[in-house]
Every structure is written in structure tokens, then in C-alpha cells.
Fold these 2 entries.
Entry 1:
Amino acid sequence: MTPEEFKKIGDAHRKKRKDFPNNINVCTAAGCVSLHSEKVKEALEGEVKKQEKHKTCRVSGTGCLGPCASGPLVSINDGQALYAGVTTDDVPEIVNNIDKNPVKRLVVPPDTPFFAHQKRVALEHCGKTDPESLNDYLAMDGYQALYDTLTTMSPLEVIEVMVNSGLRGRGGGGYPAGLKWSTVEKAVGEKKYVVCNADEGDPGAFMDRSMLESDPHSVLEGMAVAAYAVGASQGYVYIRGEYPLAIKRLRNAIRQAEKSNLLGKHICETPFSFDVDIRLGAGAFVCGEETALIASIEGHRGIPRPRPPYPAEYGLWGCPTLINNVETFANVTPIIRNGADFFAGIGTEKSKGTKVFALAGSIKNTGLIEVPMGISLREIVYDIGGGIIEGRKFKAVQTGGPSGGCIPEEYLDMPVDYESLAKAGSIMGSGGMIVMDETSCMVDVAKYFMDFCRTESCGKCVPCRVGTAQMHNILTNISRGQASMHELQLLEELCDVLKHTSLCGLGQTAANPVLSTIRFFRDEYIAHITHKTCPAGVCTIEPEKETVS
Amino acid sequence: MSASVKIKTLTIDDRHVGARENQTILEVARENGIEIPSLCYIDGLSAHGGCRLCLVEVTGIPQLLPACMTVVEERMEVSTQSERLRKLRKNILELYFSERNHVCSVCVSNGNCELQDMAGETGMDHVHFPYLYPDLGVDITHERFAMDDNRCIMCTRCVRVCDEIEGAHTLDIKDRGIETRIITDLDQNWGDSETCTLCGKCVHVCPTGALFEKGKSVGEMSKRRQFLPYLALMREEKR
Amino acid sequence: MKKKSLATLWLDGCSGCHMSLIDIDDRIVQLSESFDILYSPLVDVKEFPEHVDVTLLEGAVSTDEDLEMVKKIRRQTGMLISFGDCAVTGNVPAMRNKFELEQVLNRGYIEMSPDNEIIPDQYVPKLLDKAYPVHHIVHVDLFLQGCPPSADLIFDALSEIAAGRTPVLSGRTRFG
């Protein structure tokens, strides 16, 4: 495709959209779909016809609108009004009022803090475009960044922009993306690969899923730019099989892009060729670890291997491979389009840009959010999240899933950036954020995550294989009131062994939920051990085992 | 081997040693008589990196690195016997002993077992973690060999030798985490295996009494491993 | 030098470690210069003394009686030595641990003895849910592995203790 054709399609589509003074966007990401938003969409389409407004009002499906808990969500006239909790019964009224005042009882106030504190970069198109329409994406200047990159920039210039943007890997590690790209670019290999890690598996995390469901083209475009920069000709999206909707939309997007010569041979009539294939994960959390992911794509058992060598040097089938996660790739086109300074201007000294979080737990506004780095946890929990449900007391916020930790109240004013979170015993992680209140027992939380690690450990290295099982047993004993202080000591010892001797990130960080809860909520452990009570009333204390004291 | 092999110099436990590029720390250490403990590594098979006993400290790198899979670098400073490593190795060995039902006194490999020797060498004289006592079985369906899951440490030497040297790939791994087990074919009885060639290589690379020849009693199963480096070398030259 | 007091006993074990102790042969004379054996299957004393300096404890902790005994020994002993694999690891007695207690009793009393119909609950000590290594119940000061530990090892360990040193056995012992 040439820029003229680009423009033509975009303009035509924009004009087409303008021909409809009114539009209704219904969220069709998994959260709202699970609340039957597709029925609402059908009803709206029927009602628009019935009220003979189909020449002025367009109904379309769109990606995630944000406050998932109050779905199904419907956006009127490009965000003029946002309706929450829409049912098919509300449909006639919505259509009737489309060019009048919004339906008051459904409307989410536009100045609600949920939106006011957010900044959208990776999610820029989320909720604004139809994820199944390439034309919609083109109308938003989609693939312009790729075209400009291919025609006006050298690979090194692209990498320079990425380096200057300060973007760090959004999968959890926070490794500077530009540096990784540059390493792969420098690596010598006949063939190179770009892999998008969409094997999102942290409990409570749904950022990657939402992004792929809402705006798959931006991820593909980011991958293509990366492939051009590092010199790769083949890409893979490794996505977990549990995400059927995201897979369907991604497949559709790949097909559309291939048809329009935005992927495949000689993209946009340039010498650059890049194919993308999808590989489905079969439900192993450890396959999110990059070396296990590589093994899985290669068709082997999905187990990690020691690094170095890093995939940047020795990856898929031994070739240099760039692996970034979904959000990292989604940030690429906004950076290319708006320049490195735009991105570097957001966030903190060491953590630039924005971060997408999946806000979940005992909080009023659960959903998908994107915030500038450096925002405080308090703002996220109380302003965006709307505080704790049912007037309960805040206890902790869990970030980073099974590799992260629980951050207590005294750290709420801490800025959200890689370093601060690490200092507080947690990690940024991929963006899962679970808010817990006084009805959560921290021993139980630690036990839950250890159970997760135990069942997800691949079993290759002994510290993780046996250590997680041992720790889970001890935590179970503690939660039942059947443990002694000696066992708490063993638990801490095992944390140390796992951290330093496990083969991959899963084992090395499996102790974090335990360590952070022991650090901040030691009194709860003591209560279970010495006083045989669970302060939160979650754990069932069982009578002392009659055998050994 | 190509004519121009680059040589790297490094120190292991303050000793200056020379190495060919692409050699691992473990290979170089053993060539120089420096013993680094390991259970999954065996000369002649691909490295696995799972037993974590060969972890060493390298100056300037915060993480511990597996000697069996870490390629030497110029001026690398390797430490293999620090107090911290000794302590971690002991703990790892204890985890091994706590995982399954290792009862040395009634084992066919008593006195010829690498796990048992390793405990002796590292001074691991008791297990302070709770024992897990899993309920595991023994597969005695094969006409010549037997597999006792109770004594398996999941080093995967048998899986690797069956695949890489014998080329049969009868043995593999099922499940994950603490539930991982060595299986034959599609988790069938060994005796029903149509791919097993009865070569017995798996039995002889097994570091413990998990794989043994039938008819052997306590302490009678000694393993012969000399064939392996030889076979591996022959393969390489043929290639 | 003042003689140290020594106790030896076995819980759930086969007495093999004590046989190995006897295997030090004439060197027992040498040891008797440093130790008074106050309590042992080898001497006829019924009650465990109020205080002994060193106790060699063979066998795993398998019954309620063992449990009481091991706690008492710990209270009344200066240096407690886990003597042999059963004490150190549970060894053969612990091979029942992967089964439920009920299964074990059934197997022992009913299935294996066709003429017997009951599992005795009087006059015999009650089995614990599992057979435990001694140090999983009480603190242990020294571990002498082996099934059994060799006579030389036992002699050397006791000689070191007699001389007031902590025996360093690393590299000389092994399980099994």
C-alpha cells in the first residue's frame, strides 16, 4: 500500500464515519461480552432501524472502555456520554435520546476520577475503534508509523528513538526496550525473530487480553516496526489458549493486514518483509518465561533453560530473537508517531511513560486503566478505583502476581515505578493489581500464591519443584493453626534457597508473596501460630495434631 | 575442530586456568582437577541445568550461574566453594532427600549412588525439612530392567541418553512441578514399550537406584558409565 | 579427667547400631576409661537417669511411648546423638509413612495374620501417624549416619567427645 492509498482509505473511512452524526460504541471486550454486551449491541442495531435512525446513527463494537465491573458499557458519540450497566431494556431509551440529553440514570459522570487520573498511550485506541475493522484503525492513522519507519528511517534511527523514549519492558522485568532491540540488531544470525509474549497468566491480570481484544492492529504494527529495526522477517505471537476472543481478533487482524500488504512480502512496496504467525499456549504459566516460551514455540516441552545466553543472542531455533510483551509493542507506534520526547516526558526519571494495570479486588471501580508512571498507589486505589467496597478498611495491594508482593497502607503514597515497587518488596510485574481489604487473610493470600507456583512449577529444577511444595505445606499448616515458630523459620529459609538457586524467574520470585507478607504482616503469621486464630476470619483453625508438638 | 581455537584465561578458586572458547566452567574445572558437585550433568550428554548443585559465583554477576551451562569468558573470576554456596548446596541436597522416599539402606545402589555420595561429600548429615513421603510405585514390567520412582531425582539423564545416544526416545517426562515423573512411551508400562531397544543405557547413566537391572539386591547394582563419552565422541567424529 | 556419663538406647530400630557399637571390640576398655555407661540395653537399669552427659539414641520415633521417651531423654541429656539412619532419617521404620496409619495396622495385624481379627489397642504402645527422625521432634546435637554406622566411626566420635572436642565427621559418614 502506498501512502496515497493509506490516506484514501483513511479519509474515506473518516468521511463515512462523519456521515453518521451519531454513533453508539458497544464494548465487545471479554469483560462486557461476559455480561452479554453482544445482545445489547444487537438490540441497539434493531432499535436504530426501528426508530429509523440508521442513516444518521452507526452502531459498532469496540474495545475495552475501562470500568469493566460496571459493564456492559456503551459509549455515545465518541465519548460524549458513557453508559454503564446497560441492559436490552434500556435500549429504546438510549436510541430515542441519541441526539438529545443523555439518559441520566445510566450515565457515568464524565468528570469521574476514574478517567481524570488516567493517561492513555498504549490504550489510545481502546474503546474508540472497532477491533475487527482495519479501516477503523487506518482512520486513526494506523500503520502510518510503520510506513514512515520503512520509508524514512534507518533501523538504527528507530532503535535510537526507542532508546531515547526510555520505554522499559512491560512484561515485568523492566529491561530497557531500546537496549534489547539494539542487542538483537547487533546479534549476528542468518535469520532473526520477533516474538510477542501474550502468555498472560498472573491471577487477576487481564491487560494483554484486553489490549489484543481491543486493538490488535497496534500490537502487530509495533511488532513490524520492531522487526524492521532488528532485521527480523518472521514474528510469532505466543498467546494463551484461554483467550479465544483475543485469538480470534488477532487472527482476523493478521489476515486483514496481510490482504492489505501491511504484513507479508514487501510491505507497502518496500524491500521489507515480515510475517506473523500465532502460537497458542496450552495452559502452562511457566511458558511466559522467555526461554520456556521459545521451547514451546519450537514444539518442545515448555521448560526454561538457564540464561545466558539470552534470547537476544540465542533464541528461537538458536537465532537472535526479540521478545517483548503485548503492552511494550502497543507502546511502539505512539512513540514513533509522537516522538521519543513525548513518551519520555511522561512518568518519572527512571520509569518513563505510562503503565496499564488491571485493577481488581475489593475496589469499587475494577477495570482496565492506564496511568502515568509515578502516580501514587493511593490515587489508583482511592481516586481511580473509587476506594474499598462496602466501606471496609484497606489492607494491601498486590502487584506482580505470583512474583510480586503485598504492599501495605504505609506505602500507599509511594510513586508507582519499577524501583519504588521493588523497594517495597514487590515488583511492577505485567500490571495485575489486586486490592485487598480487612477481610483478606495475608497468610491465606501467601498460601494461595504458593499453591499457584507449586502447580505451575515446571519441575525442572529441584529448588522450585520441591521448595514450592514444601512452602505450600508449611503455609497450609500455619493457616490451620498447626505450625510452630520453627516452621516459620523454615519458611524463611526456603525463601532464600528458592530466590538464589532456582533456574528461572518463576522459582526465583515465587517467594516474594511470602516474603512481603511476612515483612509487613508478621503479626498475622504470629496470630495463626501462637494464638491459633485467623484475625481476618478466613482460615479454618483445626485442632492440634495429636502426635508431634 | 577448526584450526583456530581461541583460548581464554580465567581463574577458578583463585587458580589461573586456560580454556578453549565455548568450554563451560564445569568442563574446565574438571580438567584442572577442581571438583564442582553436580547430579544432572554427565559427560557425553547435553547439559540440563536442573540440579542446581553446580551453581558457582562469578565476580561481577549478582546471580549464581550453573557451571555446566556457563561458557567461560576471558578474565572470569569463578568461585566454587564459598560458604554461601556450601550452605545452599546442602539445602538443595536436603530438598532432594525430602522429595521422595530415599532409603539408602535397602537400595540396590547403596554404596554406588551419586546422591548418597554427594550427601557425604557436602557434609549433609541430616534433612531438616519435613519429608514429603509421596506414594510412588515401581515399574517391574520390563523383562530386564526396573524403574523405581521412589528413588528418582528427575535428573533426566535417562531421558537424554535414550534420545540423544540411543535415538529411541522411549523415556520422557510427564506432568509438572512436584508431580513430574519419568515415563516410558505414552505413560505405558515399560514392559509394553514398543520403542525400548533394551540397550540399558538409561540404567547405567542413572545416578541413583531409580533404574536398575532386575535380580540385583541391596548394594549390588553398580553402574558403568565409561561407554558414554566414547559413544558421544564416536558420533561426533562420524558427523 | 572426670569421666563423662553415657546412655544408649533404641526406639524404633533393629538394634543393629548397638551391634556395631559392640563391634568396637576391645576398644570398649579404652572408652570405659572416659565414660560411665549409666543406662543402656547392655546394662540393667530400668529408669533413665536424671542427667547424662551423652546419649546415643538409635531408632526412629514411632509410638506414643517413643515420643514421651525422646522428650524425657532430651531434658535429661547434655549431648544428644542421633545414632544411625533410623534416628537420623527415619530409614526403614519410616517406609510406612507414605501409607495411612490405618492401612499400616490393617496390613500388619489383619491381612498378614489370617488368624488374627483385632488390632490391639492395649498393652502395646500406640503408633504415631508417622515414624519421625529424632531431630524432627527434639533438638539433636550430633548426627551419626549409617545403617549401621561403622564401629570405627562410633569409636572415633566417642573418643573425640571424651577429649572434649566436637567430632568432625564430614566426608567420613554416609547414609545406608
Entry 2:
Amino acid sequence: MSSEFTKLFELFIAASIINNFVFTRFLGLCIFFGVSKKMETAIGMSITFTSVMVIAAALSWVVYQYVMIPLEITFLKIVIFIGIVAAFVQASDTIMRKVSPGLYYKLGVYLALISTNCIIIAVPLINAGEKYNFLESLSFGLGSGIGFALALIIMASIREKMELANVPRPFRGMPIAWITTALIALAFTGFSGIITL
Amino acid sequence: MEVPEEKISYLQLIKNGVFKENTIFRLVISLCPSIAVTTSIKNGFLLGIAVLFVQTMVNTTVGLLRNFIHPRIRIPIFMLIISGWVSVVDMLMAAYARETYKEIGLYIQIIVAFASILARAEMFASKHRVDYSFFDGFGSGLGFLIALVIISFFRELLGKGTLLGYSIVHAKPLLIMVMPTGGFLVVGLLMGFFNWIDMRFYGGKGAGGAGGH
């Protein structure tokens, strides 16, 4: 039991820090650069992303194991996973609007952006590729979400400070954000090799 | 819904996709693979080809079917069309380019979530005739391909000292360029460079980079 727990914990750490989605797997960059201008949006986005990733991982694991493998339609996984994610996001959008309008007002904007995002679809695809079991899939989803949140928050706090800096004109906006990310990624390579799975 | 069709030249559409609305350097969307696969020209080129194919086929399909798609359910339909074509590319690559597929397979599957493809289908192909849609998709895919090749050119040359696998520079390579850091750095510098050209010679304001995804 304890060794299983250790494995789950290792998976969580590996997904969140060592194989951080943004800095070493390069997924979700578009949203990473898009919403990291302000701390507030960054936090809202991280909460939404983490929860959607965990639930998407769970849902698609169930569908993959109990529907797709018995029917031998695993080659359709791209189509089916994107369908699951889109349907789930649409459903939670509708439910949230009815049940808690306050939360919807805060996070609804981000939900709409999520359904076609690469890092949400990557989690089920990687889970299926690595043949994780249910708990492993969940901890991978959670780890990836937390890792993404970490990246967003670090970047947002740097970019808020950077507003005041005197950046050469052609580099203002996107280019300097990329170069900053390069430096953060350099720091993150320091984590590599802590855990080898 | 139906827009009166004005005459657009095919060349203009392609040029628009390559320069004015270059997916990576100007619109700053669909960036994920621009770093992940550009460690060698071969990988960058193959992913570029995959995107070019998917983009062209999706635009053509949407252009053909646009009169049959009910506007209210268009986005799910577009997603279905896109994921269908991505599955085709995924299986083709897995069959005929096995070595490369092992390295960049995940990113090929990720094409399904590319904003640029959905955006082209939604903004252009659903409103224009099929031949215009075809050339628009081709141009936009070509722009993506060119951007990937430029980035991977610099990264392979500096990071490994080779071009297309042939040794060119006989000095110690800059290992940092093939690491994640190098990817971000090269894209950032190139983006700044293109902004500079735009400001210096064309009087533009430079790509603000709206973000999105």
C-alpha cells in the first residue's frame, strides 16, 4: 500500500515540477502567454484548469477502459477525447450558470476558452499512452494542473513587474515574455533527474 | 449569412497566410509545437507538413459543406472534421515515418486543439467559396511550415552544429539551444527581430500579440 502511495506521489511531483507542462513539455503555451498578464486572471485560470484537467482525466479514463477497449475503437481516441472534454466543459458551463452565477461571473470566461485547449486534451492522451490506472491518471491530471498553475502564477508576477521596465520597442509585449520564459525554463531544468520513473 | 463573393486572388490569399497573418510570428497562436519539435529541421518540417495538410483539408471540407452546416452547431461540427483529419495524419505518420513519430507523436495528436485551424475554418472557410478556402488554408499552413523551419534551422545549427543531420560547424555546439530554454529564446528573439523589421521598414506597430490560444 505504502509503495503504491509513493508511486502516486512521485507521479504527482514528476507531472507538476519535473515534466512541467509549460516549461518542459511546451503545452498550453498559447493560453500561458495569453492570460499571464494579470495576477487575478492567472489565478482564476489556474483554478479552472486544474479542476477541468482532473475531471477530464477521470472521465476519459472510464470511457477508455470500459467503452473503447472492449469495442476495440482505440484508434478513434483523438475524436472521442475531444468530444468528452468539449461536452463536459459545455455541461459545466451550463450548470455553473444556473447553480452559482457568482462563480460563473468570475470563471465562466475561462471555461469557454478551455474546450479546445491543447493541455486539456493532452492529459487523457498521455494517460492512455502510458496505460496508467485510475488513481495514477487522477494524480497525473492533478499534478499537471498544479504545475500549470505554478507556471502561470510565476509568470504573472514577473510580468506585472515588467510593466514598469524599459524594454526596447520591438521587444515589447510578446517577445520579452518569451525570453523571460526561457530564463524560467532554464531554472526548471535544474529539477530534471530528481525522480526517474 | 451568405456574403457576396468579391474576387480575391489566390496569390493574395497565400501571401496573407505566410506574411501578414503568419500563425506563429504575427498572430502568436498555436505555439506549443513551435518549441517542442523544432530541435531538428526534419522534425519541424514533418510537423509543418502535417499541419499544412490538416489545415488545407479542413478548410476544403468546411468550404464544401458550409451550406449544410447549421450555424448553431457549427463549432462541434468543425471539431469533428478537424479531429477526423488529424486522425488520418496521425495514422499516416505512424505508418510511414516511424522514427519521427516516436519523437513527435504526441504533438501530432495535439494538432486537433490548434486554435489556428479552428479559427481559419470559422473565420474564413465557413464564409467563402471552396476554392478560396482551399488557398487560404494552404497559405496559412505554409506560413506555419516556414516558421517552424526557420526556428528549427537556428536551433539545429547552434545546438547540434548540424543541418539536416550533416555536420556543418566543427566547434563545440551550444547545448542550451536544444534544451527547452533555447526554444523559447530563439522564438522570442526572432519575434523581436520581425517586429523590428516591421517597424523599421514598413512603419507598422509590430505584432502586439493578442494571446488567446
